[in-house]
Amino acid sequence: MSNDQHQPTILLTPVILVVSSSTNQKSAAMSFFNDQLGWKFPLNSPQLRWLNEQQDTFSIEMVRDLISELAYAAHMGKSRAFVLLRSEQISLAAQHALLKSLEEPPANTQLVLVTSNPNSLLPTIRSRCLVHDSQTSDEPIADLALPPLIETLLLNPDLVKYHQLIDFANEYKDKERAIQLIQQLLVVLHNQQKIINKNKYIKLQTLLLKTLQGLEANVNVRLALENCFFAIKK
Description:
Elements: E1 15-18, H1 25-37, E2 48-51, H2 60-73, E3 80-84, H3 92-103, E4 109-115, H4 123-126, E5 130-133, H5 148-155, H6 162-170, H7 175-191, H8 198-216, H9 221-233
Parallel strand pairs: 1-4, 1-5, 2-3, 3-4
C-alpha cells in the first residue's frame, strides 16, 4: 500500500494491535505499518499521528480532539494513520465516544489501537476492528488466505450454492475460528476495493462488521455465519 499524496478513495478497517506489556508500542506500530500494511511512514511523518504519547492516561477530551482531526483528515486527499497508544487506558465514556469513528472512519485513514489488554476494550469496539496479535502471528494481514469456497462467494457469489454454505457453516462450532474467518473476509474485501462497486463494498463491510458484533455477543455461531453468507450471496 502506498502513502503517496494523491490517493483513490479507500475505506480502511480499524485495527487493534495486540502487543506484550513490555513491548515498545511505537516500535510495534511502525513494524505493523511496514511489515503488515506495506506503509513506509517515517517516524515523524505528518501523515502519522500519535495519541497518548506519554502513555499514562486517555481521556474523553483526547478522543474528542481525535474525532475533530479525523474530520479534517477526510479532506486531505492522502493516506493518514492515527495510532492510539495504551488503548486499554481509554475511559469507558471515551470508548463510547470513539465508536462512531471506528464504525465509519474517514477514507484513506487507518486507525490503530495498540494495547496489551484487548479485553479492556468494549466488545462493540473489538467487533468494529480487525484484531492483529503481534505475539502470535507474523503473517501479513494482507496475505491471509480464505477458504476457497468463501473466496468464491465474495468474488463470484453466483457460483456458490446455498447448500454448500450451510455445510460450510456447520464446520464452525468455535466462536474464535468464526471471528477469524470474518476478519479474513474483511481483509480480502479491502484488497478488492478497486474492482468492487463502492456501494457494494460499503454494504458488505457493514454486513461483516455486524456479524462480528453478533459473534462477540455470543449469538449462535453457525446461524450467524449462515445469515452472513446468505446475505453476501443475494
